[in-house]
Amino acid sequence: MKKNLEKTYNPHDIEERLYDKWINKKYFHAEVDRSKKPFTIVMPPPNITGKLHMGHALDNTMQDILIRYKRMKGFNALWIPGTDHASISTEVKVIDQLKKEGIDKEELGREGFLKRTWQWKEEYGGTITSQLRKLGSSCDWDRERFTMDEGCSKAVEDVFIKLHDKGLIYKGSRIVNWCPLCKTSISDAEVEHEEQEGHFWHIKYPIAGEEGKFVEIATTRPETLLGDSAVAVHPEDERYQNIIGKNVILPLVNREIPVVADSYVDKEFGTGVVKITPAHDPNDFEVGKRHNLPEINVMNDDATINDKGGKYAGMDRYVARKAMVKDLEDLGLLVKVEKHVHNVGTHDRCGTTVEPFIKPQWFVKMDELIKPAVESVKNGDIKLIPERMDKTFYNWTDNIRDWCISRQLWWGHRIPAYYCDKCGEVVVKAGGAAEVCPKCGCDKYESDQFQATGGNFAKIFDVQNKKFITISCRDCGYTELYKSKGGLNILDFLIQ
Hints:
about 500 residues; 4-stranded antiparallel beta sheet
């Protein structure tokens, strides 16, 4: 009996059956074959934050075209699939899901939260894999990886230790992008700059010892005034030569701060006088280093004013801004307010306005690592198209900053760093800390930056015969108990 073909193509009747045949017959599986030239693509792993979109479809289709072409040309072709744990992004998604259920992350506890996150991974990681299969992706699924698989985690740990031993990874206090909602540092790549309507507040700073004399500064963030360490003028600005080296009185705080000369100041912009707040601005941070200025952090991790803020302590940064502006006006120190549209950094995952903070974090030294790439472009081994992009590339590499790789999160790779409770010695090693400090012999280690319940850093200590460790919140006293091996403590940071 003659069978007629369907007039309309029905992919469900054909594609799934055909793809299953390809997979079962190992058509996309690759083994080492030295008789063939290898060609490998490692799939940029999609984040497990949801489902694939059209951008993923396009990107993976292009990869599929390349790998199939090379396979047909006789190459030993391998396309490795995988998914990314996406630490911050996934935490935000899981927290949002918990909120819809009326569950608080801190009340759930670390272990409970991680259990829910792994459940999220199984659901959405599985969805992503299913979508990639529906696209007909010719991946070697026998080699599928997740970035928090044991092997991947071990690789992260090994590379961290190697770079640390070479002096290319260090812990230090520098300006970082801080998200007050997620309460973690984030990278420059995770900051989106958007135009927002704001204001320029023009404020008078009295010159110390000179009755009735002032300098006028203009700022978009009057709340950071509390942490000012100096005001700066351009060394060639004739208007201010007579005040360089003098002191001004910081309004509302009544603290004397110096007037410094620095070429960072644009004498043509605004009044030509700028406030320097090293703890809350990356440019001011560099100026502060050049002039040995104190770094005064005036905010808590949730962007409320800390105890250095006097009467404004405990206020949200924007509430404090309104109160301070009102007080400046009452004191006759507010000259004028101008409307001003400027770029404001926001966290790309939660939309919160980022606060620059000085924080102790782990950094990668980029100067040494970037040199091979720079040399490769200069000698022609790498060609940028179009050629005018060379200038953009060099501008980026010449101004690159050390990369902050640590995050204050529960979900992610742990940094293998331990701290001696007695002498502060930092021990970086695989497999957990040594049973005793190699410097002083103390057997108590603590993690100084692990974020625990209550939104505060936890104190970690040994109990009984070092079979357990406890984590206690300094705010509410909530305590969790964890098993420990050989008296080792949990690690302090999660690595991005």
